[in-house]
Batch of 4 targets.
Target 1
Amino acid sequence: MARRPDTKLPFDIAAQPPDLPVMLDTNFYLRRLQGKLAPDLAAFVASRRILHSGVACSELAISAGILDPAHPATPHNRQVVLDMLDAIDRTDIVAPSAETWAEAGAIAGILARTQYLAKPKSTLTSAEACCQEGLRRKLINDTLLFLSAREQNTILVSMNSRDMDLLLRFRPDTNVLLFR
């Protein structure tokens, strides 16, 4: 599936449904920590109730855990992520239902096949096989996050325009706000 032009994707904050809560993709949290959010996007999110995805929280936690302990910036960077996770009210964290997990698996499988991530291991080098597995895991997480936002009737705020474009073709009724 070819990527659609930005004019066909949900980048317009003003076009979002009023009063729906938001769910944040992992990339939003990281951009916020880096101080790299556009003021209008930050204001939009601040004006809404936030439901936090267990999927995104897991991705943030692994990013804190994977930091190199020998690197001098690790203690600070790890603490910033852990403090952010600790500040999230646990009652605002949602997890995908069993039905969402099943649908996410089916959609991610279709996308893995159509996006050339389903090559037989026997045809891949060990590095290519590892890369393919990592891309598949990323795809299932993105699909879980996308479908969780749909399940919770929230607006998913993400800068992952490539995968969200593909996922919106399966579930165009999902509310997504893309940003750069």
Target 2
Amino acid sequence: MAVGLRELKMERTRQLIADKAFELFTEHGFDETTVEQIAAAAEVGPRTLYRYFPTKETLIVNFVESQLFSALDRMREQPDDVPVTEAMYALIDSVVLTTAVHESRVLAIYELAGRTESVNAQFSSIWFRWRAAVADEISRRSKRRGGDMAASLAAATVGFVIDVTVHAWVESGGKANMRRLANRALELLRNGEVPVAMPAGRR
């Protein structure tokens, strides 16, 4: 369906506001940057900014949420006859590609989240909802009933691979090859090199 001129203009305004906000957050810090400064940089009024982003936190959180659920959409787009493990990798690869395109923004997000408690709390909420949605898709593809523990563990594993991979990439200053990091994490899991807790008396 064709996007109308009004919708296109709104999306451009939203993107411009977000871009200017990240520039200011990176330069001056999240707490020190005011809504008025962001609005001025984007050449919009504060009221217009609030229509797109109700709080400063949403400027950061919305980006993370949209990218995570876009990655989930890529998984859902895989044909049903594609093995579930391959569909899961498509999800991980989508996050890798997003990070490559938005390197400076992802680095800024991790820095801001590390010292902004309100942002971190919202990230946790997004992460929880996203993992539940991934588990539902894995259940559907595996033809298992909803709430299946194996699907929940698989979704959690995907989340951990993404989290550990991105953290390792951030710690490298964005210099490491993220796809190699993700593949290494998956290799460690496949080879049984990651310790798993076992009940007492089990070998």
Target 3
Amino acid sequence: MARNTPSGGKKREAKAPGGNRPLILALAGFTALAIVVIALLAVFSTRGGEAGNFTPNDQGLLPVGSRAPEFTTETVGGERVSLPEGRAAMLVFFATWCPHCQNEAPTIAEFSREYEDLRVMMISVADENWPETDTPQEVRRFVEAYGIQGPAIYDPALGRTYRVTGTPTVYVVDRSGRIVGAHSGEAPREVYEGWIQEALG
């Protein structure tokens, strides 16, 4: 006669331990793989999204599509320099004490070495109208410390010509002298590279 359980049903036979183990391991492995894939997608979407979702802060700056004002000025070494004709240029208006300028300097230095047809021009605009002033010697030290290849300039008046009210302010100019990118503040590397490639195209 079968023995009844307290619920009135027949007593269940005990299953061998570990009977569901392969299924549990498979589910755990699938879950771990899914987590890794989701994490990788999040990383890639963030990297790509930095440039894709970026909106330049160009309010008050010279408009994209307009001609960059021509100029002739002096480097901190006393050499005369102008906006290059027939060559793309990246004009970086900065102040040596500006933390955002310091953050971007390594990337600017890489551009100055990687793109042979691009002229990077570092232009300090910090005079008595700014929180702190720069000197030609400080400008030279800044450019040399970061290994930026290109003329180092101290010319606050040039900043006014280009409507610079904050640092860093970057303009990318194509071979014909047309502004293809303008931004005040830090920007993702991919944004600058897109402008540079357009200017060189």
Target 4
Amino acid sequence: MGGRPFDRRVLARDAVEVAPQLLGALLTHRTTEGSVIVRLTEVEAYRGDGQDPGSHAFRGATPRNAVMFDEPGHLYAYFTYGMHTCVNVVCSPAGSASAVLLRAGEVVSGVELARERRTSARNDRDLARGPARLTVALGLTLADNGSDLFVAPFELTARSGQPAISSGPRVGVSGAGGGAAYPWRFWVTDDPTVSIYRRHRAASD
């Protein structure tokens, strides 16, 4: 679809700075089935190293989160709720963990393939509307953990233009990492593919 490659140096910043920059960017994943391209419309930032109680890296490096401490631009994939895979873009310089969760997007190419993967989607708006749905639409699995987004079969293309951006509390984060104290969810204002916000019952206001 053209466009200029995303600058890896932008990803070497803190996730809270990087997250809004990813909105409107195009993420491509090519497989033997074909290619799907998603325009990112909703993301969440997570810090680590004792800074963010909502982050998997809050208590330091583990085998599960090791890629969060890797070079920026890699994928951090994890399994959640015993059924879903979610993916993050690793940010910050190597050794400093932070990442941006890819929460939602619009499938702009490869719609037919995304429909085959997401047979339960009621319409095209819902193909990648939510972090697990986005992962399925793109054909990503846990095996993609650690993949470099700047190397085939991936491509990350910078957005064209400046979308209107909104921010608010992260979804499903409880306790000290939740609520209005962490307005680190960012989305393209009024975009229909943004997921529905559900406040965690234990999150502080």
